[in-house]
Amino acid sequence: GLGALQALRASWPDLPVLILSTYPERQYAVRCIQLGAAGYLHKSTDPDTMLAAVRKAAAGERHLSDATAQALAEAFERTKSGRGARPSGAAGVDQLSHREHQVYRLLIQGHSVSEIGAELGLASNTVSTYRARILEKTGARNDVELALLSRRDVPAA
Question: What residue segments make up the domains of the chain, in order of their start?
Fold first, then answer.
């Protein structure tokens, strides 16, 4: 995803690139736009909107869904207020819902998405959505950062 976008932009800087992803806009849209994507579309986007996005990109414009625009505005506000582009880890863990916290605990124990789905009776796609929300709320970029965050989350003995 992001690596391919960077490679495309490096080789063909004028090529408009639209990102189609399974992850919600809140997770990666801001980073993709920062890296030069012409837009970010979730896989559930309706075909007419996808076609409109392609036409905008071909015309040299950006396609911003309401969710992407909201994510960009929130990122701008965090940057403007000096809070950085991502929330702090411990504060993010406090923001997790009960189900997100269940998924978080299993992720940091090293369980795969499919294992978590089986354990909690959820589809893998649902677990992936929870994982994306957890990463967004904690500011972690991957499961390793989540595990490191969990070490800070536990009070010293």
Answer: 2-80, 89-153
